[in-house]
Design goal:
Strand content: 35-45%
CATH architecture: 5 Propeller
Order of helices and strands: HEEEEEEEEEEEEEEEHEEEEEEEEE
Number of helices: 2
Strand order of the largest sheet: 4-23-22-21
Distance between the termini: 26 Å
Largest sheet: 4 strands, antiparallel
Length: 332
Amino acid sequence: MSQNPVQCITSRALSRRSLFRAGAATAVALGAGALLTGTAAAVDGEGIPASPYIDITGPSSDLFRSKMLHESHHVMQGFAFDNVNRRLFVVQLQNGTSGDDLCINQLSFSGEVLGSMHVPHAGHGVSIGVEPVGTASYIWMECDADGTTTDARGTALARFKFVNGGTPSMKKFLTGSKTITCATDPVYQRIAVRRSEGGRMWYSVFPLASAAAGDFSKPLAHFPQPALSTTSVVFQGYTILGSSLYTLDGSGHADSADIDSYVTRIDMNTGTVEARDITRAGSTLVFREPEGLAVYRTADGETRLFLGFGSRSSMDNVNRYANLFYKNILVG
């Protein structure tokens, strides 16, 4: 049975303007840009205009199931869409490496591998972004990992053109960060950056064009990650759409009946949880593990929130498979 949201916020301790004014003077420069730190902040004190959001309690539909990626022995991690050129990119760890080398897959919308690109010493790939530039797709992702195992995480953001079989020619931003990742909003053309600040995970949101120009000095929003549960959670991905941030958490289980994957919607202007619900998308998959979120708008104008899950054909099979589902009930 689907559970009701475990957290609903019905009051605001501080107004948006008071939150923004409180953080306006706490800028910290890092590498090629700057992020505000310490409390919520926004350009001109207005935040992000309220926008329609996806109903996370609605049903999920399949895009594809049980597709093997370029690296057969590793599950998918983060993924993102190029909404202009109609492309899908999925990141995963590389076969036969120490754990911090990643592979970017370009997939068809039926899940077939169309191309790939290796990115050495990058991190874990929890979340990535894509920026369309003409007919090219530029990948945004973590780089310069802080280790060489599967526990390694990126210390900077990289932006590079996807070239099938090519070597990334990177521009790097926000160097010196800790546990940094990003996600892009293909509808409103923004990028969210998630990283550790003062021992806690924070989100900052910027116009994508400003970020591509190396300007991270004027975030549209900046807020700490709210508590997602009264118990510990395994964070598995995030994405943004308009004024909402969506997160995915949960772990893999041998028993398909043991489902603990949750989607959460957060108001980025206040940093508060607006809805949280269990998802049963792909509930029959073998060793179903949540892996990533992304937004896509179809050519017909339908906005979709995509949920990724890794799976196996059997518990003793070394191969791993990618699965994508989506929710498409837009409210507002």
